[in-house]
Amino acid sequence: QVQLVESGGGLVQPGGSLRLSCAASGSVFNIGTMGWIRQAPGKQRELVGTATNTGITNFPNAVKGRFTISRNNAESTVHLQMNSLQPDDTAVYYCVAQRISPDEWRYWGQGTQVTVSS
């Protein structure tokens, strides 16, 4: 089993930045790809970035160029740096790990709220 704990959410003004962190514990040796998924009220869940255990990252067009992911395997942490935030980025952000299929993840964190508002 793997436990994921997110931190770093909060309120930020449009154009601002936030850095989310996720710490993994438990059986992390085989954790595989980690990522971040967000869900806004009334909207479908959206994958906003992934990082393989070799550090290869991938982002959808909606956040490409604004979001980056860094991963530290030694510390079992992954961070999501979000820049140029807009109100549409408002959502609960979940850390996820061990991808089962393109849309399924075995492990989820509890989520952290990000609100972009003036």
Summarize the helix and strand pattern as letters: EEEEEEEEEEE
Multimeric state of these chains?
single chain
**Structure summary, number of beta strands:** 11
Described by the principal axes of the CA atoms, the overall outline is: globular
Major sheet: 7 strands, mixed
The residue fraction in helices comes out at: under 10%
Work out the radius of gyration: 13 Å
Secondary structure category:
mainly beta
Question: What is the count of helical runs?
Answer: 0
Fraction of residues in β-strands? over 45%
Instruction: Flag low-confidence runs.
Output: none
Distance between the termini: 40 Å
Question: What number is the mean pLDDT?
Answer: 95
Keywords:
118 residues, seven-stranded mixed β-sheet, globular, 0% helix, four-stranded antiparallel β-sheet, mainly beta
Descriptive overview:
The model has no long low-confidence stretch (mean pLDDT about 95). By secondary structure, this protein is mainly β. It contains no helices and eleven strands. Strand 7 and strand 8 form a beta hairpin. The N and C termini lie far apart (about 40 Å). Strands 2, 4, 5, 6, 9, 10 and 11 form a seven-stranded mixed beta sheet that branches. The protein has a four-stranded antiparallel beta sheet with strand order 1-3-8-7, with no helix packed on it.
Quick overview of this protein structure:
0% of the residues lie in helices and 55% in strands.
